[in-house]
Amino acid sequence: MSVGLIALIVLGMAVVGYVIGRSRSLSLAASQDRRLHSLPSYYGQAVALFTAVPALLVLGAWLFVQPIVVETRVSEMIPESAIPEGGALSLVMADVRRIAGGLDALMTSAGLSEGDLARMSAETTNLRERLGGVGVALGSDVSAPVFEAAKAMRAANNAGSLAMTIAVLALALVAGGYMLSRVSPDMRARNISETFVKALLIGASTVAILTTAGIVLSLLSETINFFRMYPATEFFFSTVWNPQFRGGSELGIIPLLWGTFYVSFVALLFAVPIGLMIAIYLSEYASKTVRSLAKPAIEVLAGIPTIVYGLFALITVGPLLRDWLAQPLGLGNSSSSVLTAGLVMGIMLIPFVSSLSDDIINAVPQSLRDGSYGLGATQSETIRQVILPAALPGVVGAVLLAASRAIGETMIVVMGAGAAAKLSLNPLEAMTTVTVKIVSQLTGDTEFASPETLVAFALGLTLFTFTLGLNIVALVIVRKYREQYE
Amino acid sequence: MNMYDSPEREAKLDQKATKISARNVQVYYGETHALKDVSVDIQDKTVTAFIGPSGCGKSTFLRCINRMNDTIDSCRVEGTILLEGEDIYDRRVDPVQLRAKVGMVFQKPNPFPKSIYDNVAYGPRIHGLARNKAELDDIVERALRRGAIWNEVKDRLQSPGTGLSGGQQQRLCIARAVATEPEVLLMDEPCSALDPIATAQVEELIDELRQDYSVVIVTHSMQQAARVSQKTAFFHLGNLVEFGDTDQIFTRPQDSRTESYITGRIG
Ligand SMILES: Nc1ncnc2c1ncn2[C@@H]1O[C@H](COP(=O)(O)OP(=O)(O)OP(=O)(O)O)[C@@H](O)[C@H]1O
Ligand SMILES: [Mg+2]
Question: In chain A, whose CA is at the least distance from the CA of B104?
């Protein structure tokens, strides 16, 4: 029976359980002449939940575990000799899986019985051709052990599915029946749904946390692989980034980090003062109408895809800076430069800074402004001496969040600053960042298990550590600031 | 409608100049008519108390006197208020300059998130009242002493003002307002968060300030009004019901509403 069908049956049983549970609670209450602890629908829900939830959980777990068990069992059947020179067990197992999957189609098309299949052997039949006929294309002839393994896998899978169907349906029946037998006017059915809702919510947050942990762990394990092949000291302290296809690469992160921080710095240098001034204008000076128009207009900037910013950098800003700044000053003639990427990224970050700072400045209590005005201070004195100092921690938090955004940005850098790893102070020269190199190393055509590819994970982890640190600092600062007025 | 004696005669009686003269002041918050046709004369070197039930417009009127209502968008003020004969709502008057002359202590303590010292030094710095650090130190100390808080904070002038207790914060705000040497000091329930000892000290300060300034104090304590003020104004539902000598208001009120209020029957 297919998985979807099983799930549907379980859900159907849950619906039936709901109806029975509800009516049973009502009839019990009537016959015993007592008030129900909960509304009748809660009794129905309790029965339905007990029917569906454990059964579906087991179904999910089974689907996850069965392939692993079958795979390990079957792979034991493959002798060393069946693994071709230079190949791996995993490649052979992939074949086994495909043949096992194709066998059913083969049986129906050729009208074979189970007995026929058992008697069939790799020596007597041209399996490659026959499987090809039912749409399973194989790279090589099927050897006897592989074919036997495939037959064993198919048998194990079939047995497993049958056992799964029985187990899941039985569990649904037993658990649902148990709950139904417990239904009585005293039963706290409301609390059961409450617990279920809580478990559901916890489950949802666990998914998010586990995903994060999973991402970090996978980064970490590949990074460890990388450091087995490439010395960590070279990676962290070498000032040369020069990957080679044929080995002997120099993979020093310093030029990339330099590029990353240089571009981010230029971007923040641009975005922070402008964003802050916008925030001050909007929150302190602008009239309601101006504010209601200007704020969304500025936030539109945040909605522009970064690739569009990239285009703007590539086509407009880059050539402009080259023709009007770099060449007249004799500082180079590349249209991609740190300044180009930094400027455009700065534009992208303006709404970040302005919008967050605006909220923070607005959160400064009116009573502080009153206090300052009441002492005869002007508006700008009040802003400079009372409001900004009060809002400063929050503003710093906003800037740090913008910084972590800048560090992670890729598209604008590729199109604005180029892809050449360089250590230079000249802002009009092309440089590149960590993110750009992650993309180019992973999409290159080197083998996956080479340091040239795996370095991407080490780069990713380093970057992640930086942005995580920035985010934590920002959050701590912002939280501290919140406490001040509560 | 207003039941007080004519201001001219009063001025003659106690020989004190009129500091603030309000005529037909109306205040609207959007559609709400918060203050209705208030006319009053506040004398120099006098403590004037505003009393009345909550929401009757005492703070609103106080805020008219130093144009703090300008900072509320929905607020509209009509009528005239003269400070030493000059219309403070005149186009040529700079509200910033006005507020330096008419200081204010707010109903809720609002110290700046700065050190205690910087809180008090804020006004003198803005207005350039001190030529050097030593002078500024003097001003700060004097103000803190007058605010009856010097002994509690003299060892921690550099710690944040927001870290003080509610009552200490209120006295810090009083010190902050006094430090700018205003001619008129408006105090909105300055003692609502204070214990009896600090209250007595603030009342002493008010009495002392009366030598040079004109003080307007909003209070919910009849005893306090009776103790510190020479003039009392009773507000009710946005109207100025009665205004006169404190003695007279508390012993022989003219209006039945005033009498009910001070004897505790309305409020
Ligand atoms: N910012 C504002 N916006 C709208 N209405 C306001 C505002 N401030 C005060 N009001 C209204 O004006 C009226 C008078 O308020 P005000 O603060 O002057 O009262 P009060 O006499 O000081 O009261 P309390 O003794 O409680 O401080 C009230 O009805 C109040 O709701
Ligand atoms: Mg008030």
Answer: A374
CATH number, domain containing residue B72: 3.40.50.300
> Which residue among B71, B114, B176 sits closest to A375, beta carbon to beta carbon?
B176
Tell me which residue in A370, A376, A385 faces B106 most closely, judged by beta carbons: A370
Distance B57 CA to ligand 1 centre (A): 6
Residues A127 and A44 in one domain: yes
User: In the structure, what pLDDT confidence band is assigned to residue A213 with cuts at 50, 70 and 90?
Assistant: very high
CA distance A303 to chain B (A): 32
Residue B201 and residue B170 in contact, taking contact as beta carbons nearer than 8 Å: no
Are A336 and A433 found together in one domain?
yes
Residue A108 lies in a domain: yes
Closest-CA residue of chain A to B95: A376
B204 within domain boundaries: yes
**pLDDT tops 50 at residue B157:** yes
The more confidently predicted of residues A132 and B11 is A132
The residues on A that touch B, with CB distances below 8 Å, are 288, 365-378, 381, 385-386, 389-390, 484
Report how many domains make up chain A: 2
Residue A292 shares a structural domain with residue A399: yes
The answer to whether the Cβ–Cβ distance between A367 and B173 falls below 8 Å is no
B55 Cβ inside 6 Å of ligand 1: yes
Q: Is residue B30 part of a domain?
A: yes
Chain A contact for B75, CB < 8 A? no
Each residue's pLDDT tens digit, A379-397: 999 999 999 888 888 888 8
pLDDT digits (tens, 9 = 90+) for A259-306: 999 999 999 999 999 999 999 999 999 988 998 999 899 888 888 999
ipTM: 0.87
Question: Are the beta carbons of B111 and A372 separated by less than 8 Å?
Answer: no
Same-domain check for residues A250 and A174: no
Report yes or no: B59 at the A interface, CB cutoff 8 Å. Answer: no
pTM, to two decimals: 0.73
- The domain containing residue A97 runs over which residues? 3-187
Domain membership of residue B72 as a residue range? 7-110+181-262
Residue A23 belongs to some domain of the structure: yes
pLDDT at B12: 47
Q: Out of A288, A374, A390, name the one closest to residue B106 (CB).
A: A374
Say yes or no for a CB contact (<8 Å) between A375 and B113. no
pLDDT in tens, A96-140: 888 888 888 888 887 778 888 888 777 777 777 777 777 777 777
Chain B: closest CA distance from residue A53 (Å): 53
Query: Residue A480 belongs to a domain with what CATH number?
Result: 1.10.3720.10
User: Which of the ligands is closest to the CA of residue B34?
Assistant: 1
3-state secondary structure chain B: CCCCCCHHHHHHHHCCCEEEEEEEEEEEECCEEEEEEEEEEEECCCEEEEECCCCCCHHHHHHHHCCHHHHCCCEEEEEEEEECCEECCCCCCCHHHHHHHEEEECCCCCCCCCEHHHHHHHHHHHHCCCCCHHHHHHHHHHHHHHCCCHHHHCCCCCCEHHHCCHHHHHHHHHHHHHHCCCCEEEEECCCCCCCHHHHHHHHHHHHHHCCCCEEEEECCCHHHHHHHCCEEEEEECCEEEEEEEHHHHHHCCCCHHHHHHHCCCCC
Number of domains in chain B: 1
Q: Quick check: is B124 in a domain?
A: no
